[in-house]
TrEMBL record:
Pfam families: EF-hand_7, Metallophos. It catalyses: O-phospho-L-threonyl-[protein] + H2O = L-threonyl-[protein] + phosphate. One of its GO terms (biological process) is calcineurin-mediated signaling. Residues 464-480 have a biased composition (Low complexity). Its EC number is 3.1.3.16. SUPFAM superfamilies: EF-hand, Metallo-dependent phosphatases. Belongs to the PPP phosphatase family. The keyword Transmembrane applies. Keywords: Calcium, Hydrolase, Membrane, Transmembrane, Transmembrane helix. Residues 392-401, 410-420 have a biased composition (Basic and acidic residues). The lineage of its organism: Eukaryota, Sar, Stramenopiles, Oomycota, Saprolegniomycetes. This is Serine/threonine-protein phosphatase. Residues 495-530, 532-567 form the EF-hand domain.
Amino acid sequence: MQMDPTPPSLAKLRALFEKQERLSMEAALQVIHKAHDVMDKEPNVLSLDAPVVVFGDIHGQFFDLMKLLDKCHFFQPSFVNSDQTLLFLGDYVDRGAFSCEVMLFLLCMKIHYPTRVFLLRGNHECEAISSFYGFRFECKSKYGLSVYYHFTQCFQALPLAAVVSSPEGRVFCVHAGLSPSLETLADIDALNRRQEPTTSGALCDLLWSDPVPEYEDEEDTPSPPPPRMLEHRNSIEPDTLKWRPNNVRGCSFYYNCTAVYDFLTRNDLICMVRAHELQDEGYLFHFSSPAYGPLDTRPMKDFPPVITVFSAANYCDSYRNMAAYLVIQKTSNRFDVEQTRAVPHPFPQSFRNQSEGIWATFQATLPYIPASRDFFEEMARLNHVPSPDAPESEKSDDDKSSGSGTIGLKLDEWGKEKGSPGKHALRRRNSSEKHPAALSKALDAITNEWTTAVATNQLSHNDTTTMAASGTPPTTTTTAEHGPSKERLAMFTAREIDMLKLIFALMDVDGDLKLGEDEIARFIQRILGETVSEKKAKRYLQALDCNHDGHVDLNDLLSCAAMLKTRYKSMQALTAWATALRWSTTAAFFVLLYAFNKRFGKQHRWLKQTSMLAVLLWLYAHHWRRRPRDVISRQ
């Protein structure tokens, strides 16, 4: 059957996706292929003219994307006759629950407006990252793996940068930043973008680098940004090292103000607009302190040298940040920032299918880990974490699947708590996610250390863990009387360790190798399809903290799994012993019965018949006495 060559209208596509309905697989592939053909002909560095609306990370937040497009009047008839251009800086997928919808809608926008809508590549637009942070799971659930791999081919057609010409000068736009191996725009244009990025090199740097942190606490708990666009903050001394390793990301570099000034001056640019980093207010201006003035070599210094734009409001349904986009006007001296808050969105209907598939994968390798919240409840019992005093009210599956619920903090509650922009003190750890390759190395190191400690019985909480696995309270009397336990925690196969690392990585949203209450709640919501209260999330976090050091890391998850596996193997051994005892008893019964019949059966025929009837009744009763228990255990 021949496919319709006309792509779906944007209005119909929006209505379809807002109802959580899908395109057919054929229609989705048609959109992907058409957009790929258009973008594949574009250069690495686009040349655009103001006015341009610049958007940062979207991360699968379809309903927030619609609000942003409404705000910039994209759906109004006036847009068709205007000269406004839309530029997206990458990171369209992962994290959010509607990555397929975001990607298909943006590609359809590109098809309808090939010279008005432009999409750059972000670090998530590749197979290595999108298969690790959620897009592959989502796409497999909604359209199948074949469509996912067509998406990854389309990612390689995305341009890498853009230069916007405005009355004040030229603005460089890119997803992340600069590279020590790229001195000119011509160097960027000469790159081969049609490939999977590696963990080093120029392509990696454009997608992964960051401006060096300017303030002493910026990497951990950033202070609220200024309420006005060009208000200065007191800064520490400018970093004098142009390039230094980006240890937070695990790849690429940090670039300082001198690296930025050199690149901008060499290429006749006035500033750089980038995305890649979450910001409380949706935007941030870098290197704008008076301390940088003597180092600034730009002829025109009216604009900050680096502007970060982030367009995913309430990122991961957890961070309560605002979204923003930047408008580069064609009138003189005008860069406008527009901000929005998150909008409510329905509970994703795809979560249930995704969660069932993911958890089935877990249990195929880790049969001793209970499905759903039972895992956390069981660890709370084994580690003797008390239940919350007050009962919690939770949404039922019916409520969540009806589409009427929202994820995370409700916006009316958020408004009361947050107040006016800039007044809310956001509690956040580092939100810059690691490259999966770097994260895997860090997790491997932790796993090897844990395995060695268990093998040599060096875990400080080994006795407590062993006793918890057997259900014995970890009292000082027990330890004093019996000394160090000789029972070892169960060890894991390589496949089991890989699966446990995957579970931890799915929990660890911000990539800091430690879990928080919000990450536990989000994991239960995204992977298990259930909603828990803040109090219950705190209890579950305590339940996983096996060494009681105040935080949960991979060591704790490994210890939890080892406790469950130890108990699982003990129960298997007990079951095997009970089975052997039952069959040995049965064998003894038949031997005695045979001997009895041999001795008295010939003399008393009725006794032989009675014995045979007793055997049949015993077998019948034994079978039906065990059957309900077997059925229950299978359920």
